[in-house]
Amino acid sequence: MMYQNFFKKELGRLRNEGRYRIFLNLERCANEFPHAISGNSKQEVTVWCSNDYLGMGQHPEILKAMIKTLKRCGSGSGGTRNISGNTYTHVTLEETLSDFHQKEASLVFTSGYVANETTLATLGSCLPECVFLSDEKNHASIIHGIRNSRAQKKIFRHNDVAHLTELLESIPSHQPKIIVFESVYSMDGDLSPMKEICALAKQYNALTYLDEVHSAGLYGPQGGGIAQALGLENDIDIIQGTLGKAFGLIGGYIAGTKELIDFIRSFAPGFIFTTSLPPAIVVGAVVSINHLKNNAQLREQHQFNARYLKKRLEKYRLPYLQNQSHIVPLIVGNAQKCKEITDRLLHQFKIYVQPINYPTVAMGTERLRLTPSALHTPQMINHLVQALAEIWDDLSLPKAA
């Protein structure tokens, strides 16, 4: 086989379909977010697709704590936690997360992706005859974790409680069952019917596994997520989250009962054999969580900005998916047009947004995924929407009814 020719052919196919991904080199600048410097042209751009929803990645208290820890502890953790990298800071972070989600225990991973993949693969491979019931729009990390477990799986239609009920009824009552779903779905921004799913889990003796990565830190009286906002934390068996979005750092975690967390800690290869997060990152996460837990102002501003952006898009009839979250998907429906829009936003208006194409979303539903932060201003929102309206008219793209 001519390997290089194969690689070249497949890359050419991506380019022809408009799905070849080009990464813009950015330099985030502390105290300047959501502005950044484009590494290619050195021009300042406004970022509209960051997951640093609250701007905590530049918070002075976090930076101060991280620098202090870096000088005291050094750059790395020293290894895996079961051999040489179980620092006091990791224990403190897990205690903080447990309190944050009102769970008995927590376990920290190197990323949210690893937390999902490792936990689900471990549960599915260890629980005898385990069956996963997974929403069809779950994140790739969930899909891969379930696949790697080699356990039986049943996919229910997105947010379809009736279909989930039908699948649960088809499984013998004695068989272990895990319902896996997200609180906020990252590409459409819609919310899951969490209350109904929790009720079904009780009725059919199933565990609930909830991905809160796009809501932890952003919703609830103390920022604990959608489950906290709905008063359902006690009905969720396993809460999974990330430190890389609202908290402004990197890392992932799960929270649940002491026995469950200890089981994953003891049996999960993705935890056991991975170097742990550096202490400076871990301390920064503790400071970020505690700050957001006790300060609702950033969450309120974030929600206000999301509402304001949606209103402005409606004024110009720009076709976004309506939802109850902060994620604003602007539907284009064509990969080439999607890329053309983002190129024009960057070069003409100094606005940075990445196109979202297949396989992240289905073909024909290509989009811009706009993520207003707490630090975007009304002027920035107006500039974005006016630029989009001009490009939409120039390209004769369909508008909302």
Spans where pLDDT lies below 50 across 5 or more residues: none
Q: Structurally, how many domains make up the residues?
A: 2
In CATH, the architecture of the largest domain is 3-Layer(aba) Sandwich
User: Briefly, what CATH class of the largest domain?
Assistant: Alpha Beta
> How big a fraction of the residues is strand?
5-15%
CA-CA gap between termini: 52 Å
| CATH H-tier superfamily of the largest domain | Type I PLP-dependent aspartate aminotransferase-like (Major domain)
Shape: globular
Largest sheet: 7 strands, mixed
**SSE pattern, N- to C-terminal:** HEEEHHEHEHEHEHEHEEHHHHEHEEEH
Radius of gyration: 22 Å
Number of helices: 14
Structural class: alpha/beta
Give the helix proportion (percent range).
Answer: 40-55%
Average pLDDT works out at 96
What is the total tally of β strands? 14
In the CATH hierarchy, the third-tier topology of the largest domain is known as: Aspartate Aminotransferase, domain 2
Query: Numbering strands along the chain, what is their spatial order in the largest sheet?
Result: 4-10-9-8-7-5-6
What characteristics describe this protein?
about 400 residues, Aspartate Aminotransferase, domain 1, 2 domains, seven-stranded mixed sheet, about 15% strand, globular
At a glance:
Helices cover 43% and strands 15% of the residues.
Summarize the SSE layout with pairings:
Layout: H1 3-16, E1 26-28, E2 35-38, E3 44-47, H2 60-73, H3 88-101, E4 105-109, H4 112-126, E5 131-135, H5 140-149, E6 152-156, H6 161-169, E7 177-182, H7 194-203, E8 207-211, H8 226-229, E9 238-242, E10 252-256, H9 258-267, H10 269-272, H11 279-294, H12 297-315, E11 328-331, H13 335-349, E12 351-352, E13 355-356, E14 367-370, H14 378-394
Parallel strand pairs: 3-12, 5-6, 5-7, 7-8, 8-9
Antiparallel strand pairs: 1-2, 2-3, 4-10, 9-10, 11-14, 13-14
Helix pairs in contact: 2-11, 3-11, 4-5, 12-14, 13-14
